Amino acid sequence: MSKDNVFAGKRRALVKRVGDKTEKIYCDDHPANQATFKCVKCGHLFCEECVGGEDEGKAYCVGCKGFYKQEEQKQLQAEKKRSRKASSGAKKAEFILAGLMICLILVLGNYVYQNSESPIAADTEVFTAEELAEDQQLLNTADRELAELDLEIEAMLQDENVAVELPGATNE
């Protein structure tokens, strides 16, 4: 393969020799303008008018502008995907931690319940059914006697027509 065939499809910047034997490189699309940029994609040298896009100091020619935009979109999509994965991972971690905390609380609560005296039953006595029945009979007897006494007092008051003065009451 000859050198002519290798460079046949590629654009090459114009190199002009100046009188002081230095070389200046010019844009091949604008021969009057000096080439100040080099495309990071294709390596083409070009002037400011031919800049298709820049990314952090890297320049792209007009022909590679589509590549630049595609790369930019890919980077944005990858960044969004990473942030979504990170946020979903953080949510998973929060749920796992919440579940562990609930389990820890349940285990500690069970431990305290199993290893401590019940505060309700600690100071109370246990009564048998017979003792409770005796107490109930005493209460019923006391209720009956109070009711009978109340009836006797009412009858006495009605029979004697006794007026009962209440403390602090005044007669008119």
From TrEMBL:
Q: Which residues cross the membrane?
A: 93-113
* InterPro entries linked: Znf_B-box, Znf_RING/FYVE/PHD, Znf_RING_CS
Keyword Aminoacyl-tRNA synthetase: yes or no?
no
All residue ranges annotated as the B box-type domain in the record: 22-50
Q: Which GO terms describe its molecular function?
A: zinc ion binding
Coiled coil ranges: 132-159
- Report keywords, A-Z: Coiled coil, Membrane, Metal-binding, Transmembrane, Transmembrane helix, Zinc, Zinc-finger
This protein's source sits in the domain of life called Bacteria
From the Swiss-Prot or TrEMBL record, give the protein name. B-box zinc finger
